[in-house]
Amino acid sequence: MSTNSELIASAICVSNLNKTVVTQEGELTILNGINMDVKQGESVAILGPSGSGKSTLLGLLAALDTPTSGEIMLDGVELSVLNEEQKAALRKKKVSFIFQSFMLVDTLTALENVMLPAELAGVIDAKSKAENMLERVGLGHRLTHLPKQLSGGEQQRVAIARAFICEPKVLFADEPTGNLDSVNGEKIADMLFALNQESDTTLVLVTHDLQLAQRCARQLTMEVGHLTETTKSLPANDVHSAVEQTPHKAEVV
Question: For this UniProt entry, which residues form the secretion signal (predicted)?
Fold first, then answer.
């Protein structure tokens, strides 16, 4: 008999994913035998220290990079059979990003930054949708401000509005609160998870912040290129404790 979770389609399915790069010292393995399955609408955090391979994995899942071997299915599409143009079209249609450094276009206003992906996707009412998204993140009074005229927290709110305007299937967030103080970081997290729940978007979050990670339904830990499921109740406040409590390496499903 199938469980409810088994009936939910996978947004991301990864099988035996490997990534190696060539250095002056020889081949360096960054990811080793990664297996994971993320259901549609699920929120998953990937924890791990710097250099553990978190951001590399995110880039592969988002079709921004190519693995050495292994299979990635994104919303039912096998990425390895796509050329670069097809990957770009897939990202435009199904994927959004939130970055630690905001990645706003300096010469565009807050409104124009949010409108941009909608216009590229051919959304007819891009302006009204962008205005609505900025209202929802509390920036209805900052529509004409350039990024340099906004605080860090406000810039990340613009980035969140931009990420959700095209109603993506999957949202990849790489350290979304990393450049913010604790107060603004918490506000941004509240906003991110509220919008994510409303939209039923699949969220894959890379972070070193354990408290932020614990707001996701599942936490995975990356350590020396291996990915493992992390226990739900982690008492410490740093990622090293998460790594210490990680069980033996196994397939993550």
Answer: none
